[in-house]
Amino acid sequence: MGTADGEANTLNLFLSIGLDKRTAENVLVNQKVTANLTAVIKEAGVDGCSKTIGNLLYMVATKYPANALIHRPSLIQYIVSSKIKNQAQLDAALAFLSTVGPEPFNLNEFEEVCGVGVDVSIEEIESSVNTVLEENMNAILEQRYRFNVGNLCGQVRKCHPWADAKIVKELIDAKLCVILGERTADDDKKPLKKKKEKPVKVVEKANDAIACVPSVEEEVNPYSIFPEPAENFKVHTEIFFSNGDIWRAHNTKEILEKHLKFTGGKVFTRFPPEPNGYLHIGHAKAMFIDFGLAKERGGSCYLRFDDTNPEAEKKEYIDHIQEIVQWMGWQPFKVTHTSDYFQELYDLAVELIRRGLAYVDHQTPEEVKEYREKKMNSPWRDRPIAESLKLFEDMRRGLIEEGKATLRLKQDMQSDNKNMYDLIAYRIKFAHHPQAGDKWCIYPSYDYSHCIVDSLENVTHSLCTLEFEIRRPSYYWLLLALDLYQPYVWEYSRLNISNTVMSKRKLNRLVTEKWVDGWDDPRLMTLAGLRRRGVSSTAINSFIRGIGITRSDNSMIRVDRLEHDIREELNKTAPRTMVILHPLKVVITNLDAGSVIDLDAKMWPEAPSDDSSSYYKVPFTNIIYIEQSDFRLKDSKDYYGLAPGKSVLLRQVILYAFPIKCTEVIYGDNDTILEIHAEYDPSKKTKPKGVLHWVAQPSPGVEPIKVEVRLFEKLFLSENPAELEDWLADLNPCSKELIPEAYAVPSLASAVLGDKFQFERLGMIISICYSTHLMFAFHIPFDMIATYETPTALLPIGYFAVDTDSSPDKLVFNRTITLRDSYSKSGSK
Predict the structure, then answer these.
(1) 402 catalytic per annotation
(2) Of 494, 632, 820, 829, which one is the catalytic site residue?
(3) Distance CA 629, CA 641 (A)
(4) Distance CA 764, CA 61 (A)
(5) Which of 768, 817, 795, 802 is nearest to 578 (CA)?
(6) For the Glutaminyl-tRNA synthetase class Ib non-specific RNA-binding domain, which residue ranges apply (predicted)?
(7) Closest CA relative to residue 249, chosen from 521, 475, 538, 54
(8) How far is CA 438 from the centre of its chain?
(9) In Å, how far are 94, 131, 268, 296 from 226, measured between CA atoms?
């Protein structure tokens, strides 16, 4: 019989149970639903039936829980015999069977749950409809036909859950028509939406540099999407084999009860990094999900080192991971290693061989690749079980050379899923293991060990990134093959951030080839690098929470989004101070050389005047320093810096010091400017428009504190360097600039590692791209300020943190972030 004839017969079969032609034709397009519905009709044993029964059979074919297939024929007989005769009853039956799974159940309990034998008369339905309409009459008369009829139906179904929904709806419609009369044109008009009142915009200062934006943290619980441990009885996934077999992965009642007894019904998760490098910000997202879910549910999270590759692992990495996890604010329930379970993993591998589900293979990597591409079985796949047992023991004892044998799982080489192509479970490696020493010379693969250790540790939720989704069948295949408990697996999207790379392989190359200054280089998105740059764990976690736990893959988060969260925190926590990056000497000629005027400067814009701890001393002497870029020989109307014959106001951090006027320019060789001579106005009667920041000699003849300042830009020029063939060529040659001798106010001398500051800049406010020497000036006219004493917002050139290279002789500051906040200005990206 041809394909066309076969489809015609199947279509007629579907039409015979009362399906309309369009629905029947749509079913034929879906092979899985077609097969299910055909099987359901066969189990029903009907040669045509009413439309009511046919629709219920169709629901069974599309919604029946796969873990309870053994009970499907019984349910179908309830439908055919009209004991279950409406959707409400069938929904209750499907929910009941989904909970029971393949286990036997009590028929009386089932019938009670499904309303079998309960008849609701039209009179009973009508009485309840009248009651519900009376209770809602005021709203009905006000909204007329715009009232939500579904809400009324729901209220009636609460009284009669097994009532025919169609009858309920028809009665309500008929009575509404009597109450309201015929529909009018006004009833069909869409109601005018009330405009939402815009929140009052609070302007803190007329010249604030950064507009505060609302918190982007999710208002809802991000972990609410995950099921409870006791719900882990449903089918996790279906494993389709090339021979037509289907394995439906789910926990039996006995296995789940044993698991829940161990866990007490609590959530158990795990954060399983490989100790082959430093953790990056993508791991911060994994920690937020793994540790965060356990904390939110009152459960526990393992820190498990996936240490199955001894050649790539170092104690340095293990120590770093343990330390950085705690720095991120997470406390592991227990620190474990995959190597802790090497004996159990080996014993289970032996059991797989005994069950005929694993074999020792001698193919080379090239041959394995070729055979997988051709979907061909290995020539050693069907060797005797005893032979594989003997060879696997020889592998363990070190009697076979490295690369001459592997243990492979006997899965399905003809599967449509390449991760079912007889994955390698064990390989020979004569390498010292950081944790296990030299006890083993065979090591399990990630694909083999990961799911088994999840099960052995009674993990309730095995959470990983989306690239592992294709491995679900192999994950559950192993657990089914060994009759082990099956955790709930859920995949989420990777964290991809622009202008950087997050592949450990690429990061390792950047470090080992010295393109950067180690794993904690502040330009890297490693957590150690971010910390050294001055980023806090709270800012990172705020960023992670803000972007959410989603499954939308391949989305690139612009680095501006992360910078916004960092900037938001530092703006509230980093005290303000003054540093001159490129000093130009200014001699105040009308101030005695021995004079020192101590001025009070605020650390915080809103510091109360009676809080001495919020102030620090700034000396004003006859030698001060301003930024080279704040002086030019030729003045102009739109320039607010210092120029010959021109006055500017010296900033005193929130308050103001004195006006000064340039009286002379001193030149050196080649007409270079050596210093500026100026006079100050102690009376402050002069009112210039320009305002400059400055640093003075703390005492006569003593230079200001010299500090090293490091300015960082994006490490890569492109948003997505990882997709470039020559990604190293995309490195930003100007991603780091060292300013070895910047001048700082005396109070910075006491700064220690961990301290963070805002370095301020006002007047001719310049955000300098030192890599290209391009300057963008933003001017604040003096007429915006009423008097010298009026506090005004400062524009910091950036936020800086003390670096680990600092010594008692010299402080080093890393720029954490610049002033510019492109994220809050342009919105989410």
Answers:
(1) no
(2) 494
(3) 8
(4) 73
(5) 795
(6) 10-165
(7) 475
(8) 38
(9) 21, 39, 12, 11
C-alpha–C-alpha distance, residues 269 and 455, integer Å = 11
Strands 597-602 and 623-627: unpaired
The answer to whether residue 212 scores a pLDDT higher than 70 is no
Q: Is 381 a catalytic residue?
A: no
Q: Is 663 in a helix, a strand, or coil?
A: strand
DSSP string, 52-64: HHHHHHHHHHHH-
Partners of residue 527 on adjacent β-strands: none
Distance CA 208, CA 563 (A): 19
User: Residue 743 forms beta bridges with which residues?
Assistant: 580, 706
Asked whether residue 267 carries a pLDDT value surpassing 70, the answer given is yes
Contact 233, 460 (CB under 8 A): no
Distances (CA, A) of 15 to 73, 325, 373, 480: 21, 61, 43, 39
Q: How far apart are CA 392 and CA 59, in angstroms?
A: 50
β-pairing, 691-692 with 647-652? parallel
Q: pLDDT (tens digit, 9 = 90+) per residue, 491-513? A: 998 999 999 999 999 999 999 99
Q: Does 157 participate in catalysis according to the annotation? A: no
93-122 tens-digit pLDDT:
888 888 888 888 899 989 988 889 888 888
Torsion of CA 562, 563, 566, 568, to 10 degrees: -110
600: CB partners within 8 A, 6+ apart: 615, 616, 617, 618, 652, 655
Report the C-alpha gap between 702 and 414 in whole angstroms.
Answer: 81
Q: What angle do CA 538, 466, 255 make, to 5 degrees?
A: 95
For residue 431, is it left (φ>0), alpha (ψ between -120 and 50) or beta?
beta
- Do the Cβ atoms of 656 and 791 come closer than 8 Å? no
Q: Are 760 and 691 in contact (CB under 8 A)?
A: no
Which residue among 472, 504, 736, 761 is the active-site one? 504
CA distances from 213 to 246, 304, 536 (A): 52, 38, 20
Residues 6+ apart with CB under 8 A from 415: 240, 241, 242, 421, 473
Task: Give the pLDDT band of residue 170 (cuts 50, 70, 90).
Answer: confident
- Contact predicate 507/280, CB 8 Å: yes
Q: How far apart are CA 792 and CA 228, in angstroms?
A: 53
Q: What are phi and psi of 591, to 5 degrees?
A: -120, 130
pLDDT at 189: 66
* CA-wise closest residue to 306 among 333, 340, 279: 340
